[in-house]
Write a structure and sequence with these properties.
InterPro entries: AKR2_Oxidoreductase, NAD(P)_OxRdtase_dom_sf, NADP_OxRdtase_dom. With 362 residues, the protein is of the alpha/beta class. It has a single domain, classed as TIM Barrel. It is 39% helix and 14% strand. It contains 13 helices and ten strands. The strands form two sheets. An eight-stranded parallel barrel has the order 3-4-5-6-7-8-9-10, surrounded by seven helices. Strands 1-2 form a two-stranded antiparallel ribbon.
Length: 362
């Protein structure tokens, strides 16, 4: 797993090449504020090979964070992450590896009949009950997460993942009440607390799309204070003094800044945004869709672009995300070496200060 010695040694190896606060605290050590995502791309050998080369380049250039999920590209993304870790000139202890469980994965390719595949591989085998499924493919019962975590460890060829996310729990809100989803999260967290004690994960988190950045009346809203409360209860139930919930992941970019602007999480002093609440609670925030899956590679709003440093629109978009108060790292999908090189170079520029960032929204 990633360690204090490994990640700080990695920082010493590469840190002088980057701007202020490029490496930031996470877990026992530090992590680069630009990370590599592995979501996009066909489930093919050609794309596997491109990802492999891109990831090796990233690990050998100053990015020590990779984010994946068991369902990404039919489990191929996890497998190529494991291969790249073995081949890169870095130690396992240098690199923070995060993955996710919740969506039931295909294996290698998309089947002709996805519904039948889920039925035969997951329902008929007794792993999941149809009553626990949302959209026919999402489940987060302890039994499912336990099995998916084991499969992820096998795919990655690792003994431990540094952060394991419950993947898009708001998906379950389409089939059950909000209180029932909180109950599901609590039992999921109990399982993850036990897997943390066993050394299979370093920490856990919640990766979301809508849940934490929408108003309270939105059908997919989840309260961060309630999620944190459920994690505390889960830790107590598991007999752990320290709570293992350490991170959230959510989309954040120039055109999706809701996590900063939407104050939907209750506190004693009034509602605050997801980023503010996470900062107050000591949760690390990892941003997905940092360049809006490529759409911000072409153009940024003029008034915002003028505030940002970078040699390209992509770099300025990345630096917007990593400049947001409370953000630990901005994740950017990259399946090509040249994309990695451009993304890494974004970190050579200093992020804008909190005051300048606030001024963008005034």
């Amino acid at each position: 797993m990633a360690t204090h010695h490994g990640t700080w040694g990695y920082r010493d190896r590469f840190g002088d090449s980057f701007g202020r606060t490029y490496f930031r605290r996470f877990g026992p050590g530090v992590v680069s504020s630009v990370g590599v995502g592995t979501y996009l791309g066909d489930p093919s050998t050609e794309v596997d090979d491109r990802y492999h080369d891109a990831l090796v380049t990233a690990f050998e250039s100053g990015i020590n964070l990779v984010d994946t999920a068991i369902n990404y590209r039919c489990q191929r993304s996890e497998r190529v992450v494991g291969r790249a870790l073995r081949d890169a000139d870095v130690e396992r202890s240098d690199v923070v590896v995060a993955t996710k469980g919740g969506f039931l994965p295909f294996d290698g390719s998309r089947p002709e009949n996805p519904g039948r595949y889920i039925q035969e591989r997951f329902v008929d085998t007794g792993l999941v009950d149809t009553a626990d499924l949302a959209h026919g493919s999402h489940a987060m019962t302890p039994a499912v997460l336990d099995e998916l975590l084991d499969r992820s460890l096998d795919n990655l060829d690792l003994d431990t993942v540094d952060c394991y996310y419950v993947h898009n729990p708001e998906t379950q809100l389409d089939t059950r009440s909000r209180s029932a989803v909180y109950d599901q999260l609590e039992t999921a967290f109990e399982l993850l607390e036990r897997r943390r004690t066993a050394g299979d994960i370093g920490a856990y988190g919640v990766a979301s799309w809508n849940a934490f950045r929408v108003p309270t009346d939105h059908e997919q809203y989840l309260s961060l204070p309630e999620v944190v409360s459920r994690a505390r209860t889960a830790a107590e139930t598991a007999g752990n003094e320290e709570v293992g919930l350490k991170a959230i992941q959510l989309p954040f970019n120039v055109v999706m800044a809701d996590a900063f602007t939407t104050k939907s999480h209750p506190t004693d002093d009034g509602p605050v945004s997801a980023l503010e609440y996470a900062h107050e609670e000591g949760l690390s925030v990892f941003t997905s869709a940092s360049i809006a899956q490529g759409s911000l590679a072409r153009e940024l709003p003029d008034d915002i672009e003028a505030e940002l440093s970078g040699d390209s629109t992509v770099q300025r978009a990345i630096n917007f995300a990593r400049s947001a108060p409370g953000v630990t790292s901005a994740l950017v999908g990259a399946s090509r070496r040249d994309h990695v090189a451009e993304n890494v170079a974004a970190g050579t520029f200093d992020p804008i200060g909190a005051g300048a960032f606030d001024a963008v929204f005034e």
